[in-house]
């Protein structure tokens, strides 16, 4: 943060100013500006012009920092901006939480810079308006007894060329501020688009995984439901045991093949109701999967009817 306090002495064409918060680079920039324009050393707009240049350099640096951060985040999105559309090896891919955190921080920085740029443009515009009003006042006819007015008019005539230079430079700074605001808005729109695109792909992958899980459940749940229903005691079905050749096996007294389990030469048998269960479960599974495919893959858009023919 830089602040300036200055006083301009009109008769002596001398300006004294104190700059607060400047680092070494900014002080070098001040000396550079004074060295490059020795003919405006005594101009009344000198301190304003220097402060405007320092503010422009500061905002330009912040815009470049945000642009570099945006480029780095874009590479982490998947390397779409890398050579041949591939992500560089030294750039790791994003996870969802880090994406939200970095995007939120970048949006906050971008918004703050836009506000500062717009505020700086407003101040420069106001300065130009004050300069124009001062010029119009100094060009009005003044009486000979108005000494201060004569001095002000003399200062205006001697600094007319310098004033035009300052006005031209301030207008250029307004154009630069508009460009900075445009860059910030473009970066903000790009980040919003990239984040939405990334989240859309992430959601699509989640939906695809959910469909696979739902398909597996549709294959498994109907069969377990049928076997659970058939095992209810309300049916009181008596088991008839069959071998693998569909021949009836002699029933034991317990109506189960447990009596022959101890005999190693006994034939492996299973309940005859197994085939009923198998047929019913396959039918229910096909019905479930078919209903899901019928309603899930119907891409026709049904608009609500709002009027009648």
TrEMBL record:
TM spans (from-to): 212-235, 274-295
The alphabetized UniProt keywords are: Membrane, Transmembrane, Transmembrane helix
Write down what this protein is called. Answer: Uncharacterized protein
**Which organism does this record belong to?**
Rhypophila decipiens
